[in-house]
Design goal:
Blueprint: E1 3-8, E2 16-17, H1 23-26, H2 31-36, E3 38-41, E4 44-47, H3 48-51, E5 52-57, E6 62-65, E7 71-72, E8 82-86, E9 98-104, E10 118-123, E11 146-149
Parallel strand pairs: 1-6, 2-7, 6-8, 8-9, 9-10, 10-11
Antiparallel strand pairs: 1-5, 2-3, 3-4
Length: about 150
């Protein structure tokens, strides 16, 4: 499995939904295939290469760089693998996670670690409201795993 570094080219005009990106989803893809991988920017699908500079890594980690405060659902329902974020991150970080590891070096938005049942999520700065809670309409919040917040919560 090969890893990737995704460096944000510029702040997106609308929120990004990155739930489809995971180390497993990008494993074995060529650089061209990763660049064509579709993610949601507002209500339209945009190729990853239009938003990020893509660099191959020798390890199996997926690394994000830049101000991703408008990028939501990083690590959504992650089951395995490693994700590192070198910058602030948006809402729903690690929501529904059941395995793997996410390390965010700076702040995270709302609803981080919601309905998490396994794995490890480390946030180097502050986290927004409702961390480790239930998603809207659900009864259960975080049921397992480890959430480490080095700053303030809520």
């Amino acid at each position: 499995m090969s890893g990737w570094t995704l460096t944000l080219k510029q702040a997106p005009a609308l929120r990004l939904d990155l739930r489809a990106l995971s180390p497993a989803a990008l494993a074995g893809l060529s650089a061209d295939a990763v660049a064509k991988f579709g993610v949601w920017h507002g209500n339209e699908s945009v190729a990853l290469g239009e938003l990020f500079t893509i660099t191959a890594r020798s390890d199996d980690a997926l690394r994000f760089e830049g101000d991703l405060s408008r990028a939501d659902r990083i690590g959504w329902q992650l089951t395995a693998g490693r994700i590192h974020v070198d910058g602030p991150v948006g809402d729903y970080l690690g929501a529904g996670m059941s395995g793997g590891e996410i390390v965010a070096r700076r702040h995270a938005g709302l609803l981080a670690a919601c309905e998490m049942s396994g794995g490890r999520l480390e946030i180097g700065g502050n986290v927004g409201d409702y961390a480790a809670s239930a998603l809207p309409g659900s009864m259960d919040g975080m049921r397992g795993g480890t959430l480490l917040v080095r700053g303030s919560a809520g």
